[in-house]
Write a structure and sequence with these properties.
This protein has three domains: 1-36; 37-200 and 308-373, no CATH class; 206-290, Pdz3 Domain. The protein has eleven helices and 14 strands. The chain has helices spanning 2-24, 44-55, 58-91, 114-138, 163-167, 171-199, 217-221, 240-247, 299-322, 331-340, 345-373; strands spanning 32-35, 38-42, 143-151, 154-161, 206-208, 211-212, 228-232, 235-236, 255-260, 263-268, 270-272, 275-280, 283-284, 288-290. Strand 1 (32-35) and strand 2 form a beta hairpin. Helix 3 (58-91) packs across helix 6. The radius of gyration is 25 Å and the shape is globular.
């Protein structure tokens, strides 16, 4: 609770400082724009980079833009069918749907994961916006501005183009632009997954010690942060479930042999302060599995690379899928509008409204049911 309070106060202090500076200094001269909970920096360098990239590898970008239409349509179908199937899983007796919750640091997201999450958000948003900008330039639409921003606590990027020029484009060109962002996220997410599966063993071989109880059994034995526990009394420990199952059979005062990355240690289990009949060894959350890697990285750096790539995969794929939902303000809504251009005018608006309402209902219902089991 102290960490969450400190985090909240730090965010408030940051925005108060930003607002105070915006009143004192002429930040607009330097391309900095400050609004309530929004810090925006217009970068000429980022904009010129988009122009440079769009002028190179034109065949590759052209191929990507056409593939994006197919990927965008597939992502939209997948998003709707996944949410519908997940909702049915929640409602079936004994069914367990996948939890879909909004990211709220300190509530639905532990602050331990926040750095990895923010890195993934930065990469996902910059990849997304850059793809929009490059494909727009390929369609001869000028980029008005580009840069980085902070919205609340979430960093990201932006690319602004002339919306009137986009509306005047042929249907296929608009579909290329609207689907490019999510398609780039999908490709980047799959690349992150490929790196994970290539560099790291698929099955964990131990559990990394991140925190230990001060003066607890592990601490007294000299086992500390970034050590890897492979086994307890020759019972393999690869995650929290293995640890919980093993400790359910251990009594306070039992002697245990802990096999670690630095050799074997002998400890004596202690009483659980919350239940005197249960034993503890003094390991504290988070309980993270250890995956061996091909790069020869030690447990600390191996964990950082693994977690960073994992969050890049999760965030990139999530953005790719949910951004293509036909919900107003999402790319999926504008993509759907392009699809509706081929539908008879009297059916166009009712059909689009149906998919809008369906998508909003599905995402809201999944979140509500997820929070009930969270």
């Amino acid at each position: 609770m102290r960490e969450e309070l400190f985090f909240t106060l730090s965010i408030l202090a940051f925005w108060l400082a930003v607002y105070a500076l915006s009143r004192i200094l002429p930040l607009n001269r330097y391309g900095v724009e400050v609004k309530p909970l929004l810090l925006k920096y217009n970068s000429k360098g980022f904009k010129s980079l988009l122009y440079k990239f769009s002028s190179r590898w034109r065949r590759a970008w052209t191929f990507f833009s056409y593939v994006s239409i197919l990927l965008g349509f597939g992502l939209m179908l997948f998003a709707i069918t996944f949410l519908l199937g997940n909702l049915i899983e929640f409602l079936l007796p004994g069914g367990e749907g996948a939890a879909i919750t909004p990211i709220i640091p300190g509530l639905t997201l532990s602050l331990y994961w926040l750095p990895y999450f923010l890195i993934a958000v930065i990469v996902a948003v910059l990849t997304h916006e850059s793809a929009h900008g490059i494909v727009a330039l390929m369609e001869r639409i000028d980029v008005k501005s580009a840069g980085i921003l902070v919205l609340g606590i979430f960093p990201g990027g932006f690319v602004e183009v002339d919306e009137d020029e986009i509306d005047a484009l042929p249907r296929r060109s608009r579909m290329k632009i609207f689907s490019a962002g999510s398609s780039s996220n999908l490709i980047f997410g799959l690349l992150a997954l490929l790196l994970i599966s290539t560099i790291f063993a698929s099955n964990p071989s131990g559990m990394i010690v991140v925190n230990v109880l001060e003066d607890g059994p592990l601490h007294r034995a000299g086992i500390g942060r970034w050590d890897v526990i492979y086994a307890l009394n020759n019972t393999r420990i690869c995650g929290y479930s293995d640890l919980a199952n093993f400790m359910s059979r251990v009594k306070p005062g039992d002697r245990l042999i802990v096999s670690t990355s630095r050799g074997d240690f002998t400890i004596v289990s202690a009483r659980n302060p919350e239940d005197e009949n249960k034993a503890i060894i003094g390991i504290l959350p988070p309980y993270l599995p250890y995956h061996q890697n091909l790069l020869g990285l030690d447990p600390f750096w191996g964990l950082q690379v693994h977690l960073t790539l994992t969050w890049l995969f999760v965030v990139s794929i999530s953005v790719a899928i949910f951004n293509m939902l036909p919900i107003p303000m999402f790319d999926g809504d504008r993509f759907l509008q392009c699809l509706m251009d081929r539908v008879a005018e009297r059916f166009r608006n009712p059909l689009k409204r149906f998919f809008n309402i369906l998508s909003i209902f599905l995402i809201a219902a999944n979140i509500i049911l997820s929070l009930r089991i969270f």
